[in-house]
Amino acid sequence: MTRFTLSLPVLALGTALAFPVCAAPLSQSSISDDISQSTLPEGGKFSTVSGDVTVGTSDGPLSVRTVSGDIHVTQSHGLLDVHTVSGTLDVDHAAGAVEVRSASGNVTLDHADGAVSIRTMSGESTLDHAGRDIMIRSISGDMTLMLDAASQMRTIDIGTVSGDMTVHLPHGFGGTFDIRLKQRRADKALPLEQSLGLTVQTGNWEKESAGSEEVRTVTASGRVGDGRDHVVIRSVVGTLKLVQD
């Protein structure tokens, strides 16, 4: 009887072929050097102080942290998680969910297929072609939001202290609106511009604190179309414009 023996290197090779090792997300950090990656099959984790981060396509979770470095992502298919202080974020197409935290950097998402969460202080937020749930919070940054038609119910929840908001609704949009804004006595025009047939009500002029300027609450509510989407909008001194495209 003939016996065969396998040496350890051959055995190890066979084991590796039978059980392939999964690649881990790429991790890279720098102080001032730029980071550029064309393709990330497993996603990546990047951090810089002032260096820019450029990513072509990420098929896995992508996490980016910068202080002043700008961020550009062409295609993101997994979760995109970005924290920046003053760096700008520009995303061409996000197929997965997006979570952004920014102090003063502007945020621009050209196409967002997944849910979007943006929190910023003074940076402007521009979200085009959005099809899923949206949550945006800002202190003084302006917002421009363009909704696409969606195949399922979604929630659009945006709020600001003093930023101006513009929301573009697709033709045939159906939603239920819950809007609460504030108007200062010095502002002659209502802070709301809309032609959707929403019911608008104004409260009494009141001082919120001793010596402060008089303000009143402006609310708007109603059902448009099938009322499927739930739209919640809040502002302290900012304006809101609803546009039916």
From TrEMBL:
Database matches in Pfam families: DUF4097
Keyword Signal set for record: yes
Alphabetically ordered keywords of this record: Signal
Limits of the DUF4097 domain: 95-223
Range of residues in the leader sequence: 1-23
Keyword Signal: yes
Top-level taxon in the UniProt lineage: Bacteria
Record InterPro entries: Toastrack_DUF4097 (IPR025164)
Name assigned to this protein: DUF4097 domain-containing protein
Organism: Gluconobacter roseus NBRC 3990
